[in-house]
């Protein structure tokens, strides 16, 4: 019989290490392209974009091929939706707009089998050939909650008491909107709120995550952020702009 697939990214977090998470993914071909580059995890996007259930299965298989954890953002904190996403092979779930302790509990319990939760009793692709999948899956499945509104930060102390959540992720873009700075995630008030939240998460002995880029990754890692997520789209845009500029100035 096959052994359960080990969630290497989750293990690194438990060991106090940082993990790198690449986002901006809409197909298995992109994952295959990025796979050899060494990222720990691939953030599969189903709250926005065109990924359907068939595509999701292909994308999680591509992640398995390259040894990356597949972690999928669902579009609502719905137990049935979370169950089906895990059934399609995702090793982790990202739950958006978690603003209260009760919402955090629902996110965690929807992702876990009994006695930790009430995930539907079907193993899906990751269970094939694994005789005791139901007894081991809870240890390998990652739960990420997104703290995206002022309300979430106001309730952060209570949210942090919820067990079985692997990452508390501060989402600066949506947070900026609720703070009255829409489209300006770099506003000083937003950055200060993000820093306060990170400090509180780290101080509670929990794992903090946030969006980073080439210019901020080191600073956030030094602040204790272990779950470092970035998009590859900015690299393409910057490289394209440099190429076009050089082509135009060469004559």
Index terms:
single chain; alpha/beta; 44% helix; 12 helices; TIM Barrel; 251 residues; eight-stranded parallel beta barrel
Q: Describe it for me?
A:
44% of the residues lie in helices and 16% in strands. It is an alpha/beta fold. The protein has one domain (8-249): TIM Barrel, CATH 3.20.20. It has an 8-stranded parallel beta barrel, surrounded by 8 helices. Helix 4 (79-87) links the parallel strand 3 and strand 4. Helix 2 (28-34) runs parallel beside helix 3 and helix 4 (79-87) packs parallel to helix 5 (101-111). The longest helix has 17 residues, at 233-249. The model has no long low-confidence stretch (mean pLDDT 96).
Blueprint (SSEs and pairs):
Blueprint: H1 8-14, E1 19-25, H2 28-34, E2 41-45, H3 53-66, E3 69-73, H4 79-87, E4 92-95, H5 101-111, H6 133-140, E5 142-147, H7 150-154, H8 156-159, E6 167-170, H9 172-178, H10 188-203, E7 208-211, H11 217-222, E8 227-231, H12 233-249
Parallel strand pairs: 1-2, 1-8, 2-3, 3-4, 4-5, 5-6, 6-7, 7-8
Mean pLDDT: 96
Helix content: 40-55%
Helical run tally:
12
Largest sheet: 8 strands, parallel, barrel
Largest sheet: spatial strand order = 1-2-3-4-5-6-7-8
The CATH fourth-level homologous superfamily = Phosphoenolpyruvate-binding domains
Q: What is the strand tally? A: 8
Low-confidence stretches: none
Task: Specify the CATH architecture.
Answer: Alpha-Beta Barrel
Number of domains: 1
What is the name of the CATH topology?
TIM Barrel
- Tell me, what's the shape? globular
The SSE string, one letter per element, is HEHEHEHEHHEHHEHHEHEH
By helix and strand content, what is the structural category?
Answer: alpha/beta
| CATH level-1 class | Alpha Beta
Strand percent estimate: 15-25%
Distance between the termini: 64 Å
Radius of gyration: 18 Å
């Amino acid at each position: 019989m096959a052994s359960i697939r080990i969630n290497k990214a989750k293990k690194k977090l438990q060991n106090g290490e940082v993990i790198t998470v690449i986002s901006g993914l809409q197909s298995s071909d992109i994952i295959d392209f990025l796979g050899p580059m060494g990222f720990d995890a691939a953030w599969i996007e189903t709250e926005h974009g065109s990924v359907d259930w068939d595509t999701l299965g292909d994308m999680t298989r591509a992640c398995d091929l390259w040894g990356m954890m597949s972690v999928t953002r669902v579009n609502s904190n719905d137990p049935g939706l979370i169950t089906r996403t895990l059934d399609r092979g995702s090793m982790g779930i990202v739950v958006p707009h978690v603003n209260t302790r009760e919402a955090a509990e629902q996110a965690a319990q929807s992702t876990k089998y009994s006695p930790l939760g009430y995930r539907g009793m079907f193993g899906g692709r990751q269970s094939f050939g694994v005789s005791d999948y139901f007894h081991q899956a809870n240890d390998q499945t990652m739960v990420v909650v997104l703290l995206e509104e002022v309300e979430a930060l106001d309730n952060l102390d209570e949210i942090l008491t919820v067990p079985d959540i692997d990452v508390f992720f501060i989402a600066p873009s949506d947070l900026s909107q609720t703070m009255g700075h829409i489209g300006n995630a770099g506003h000083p008030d937003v950055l200060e709120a993000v820093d306060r939240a990170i400090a509180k998460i780290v101080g509670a002995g929990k794992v903090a995550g946030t969006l980073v880029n080439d210019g901020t990754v080191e600073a956030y890692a030094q602040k204790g952020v272990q779950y470092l997520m970035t998009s590859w789209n900015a690299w393409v845009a910057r490289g394209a702009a440099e190429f076009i500029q050089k082509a135009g100035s060469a004559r």
